[in-house]
Amino acid sequence: MESQGLDMKVTALVSDNIGTLAGGRYVDSDVVAVVILSAGTNAAYVEHANAIPKWNGLLPRSGNMVINLEWGNFKTERLPRSEYDNALDFESLKPGYGLLLHTLIR
């Protein structure tokens, strides 16, 4: 930013799904989940903090937390993969990464 002469200060960096969820909740507080479908896919949702088994810190004042699923690299034997899935993965820019997306677009 400095090299471009931009007088800016970065105060936050967020992923597209977190930014979309924040923007949606800014407009309508009833928004509780988003799904991003673009070059990749991901989702985020609002969860009651006391319902998160992994959480062991102080609870936020709102009582809620945003869960970023990062589901694009979800792997499971319960979601069968075809020869096409394996070929697509092999030919992708990042083999072994984004396997859920490869399975969804077949």
Automatic annotation (TrEMBL):
One of its GO terms (molecular function) is glucokinase activity. GO terms for biological process: glucose metabolic process; glycolytic process; intracellular glucose homeostasis. The keyword Cytoplasm does not apply. InterPro entries: Hexokinase (IPR001312), Hexokinase_C (IPR022673). One of its GO terms (cellular component) is mitochondrion. The keyword Kinase applies. It holds the Pfam family Hexokinase_2. It is an enzyme of class 2 (transferase). Its EC number is 2.7.1.-. Residues 35-97 form the Hexokinase C-terminal domain. Keywords: ATP-binding, Glycolysis, Kinase, Nucleotide-binding, Transferase. Belongs to the hexokinase family. This is Phosphotransferase.
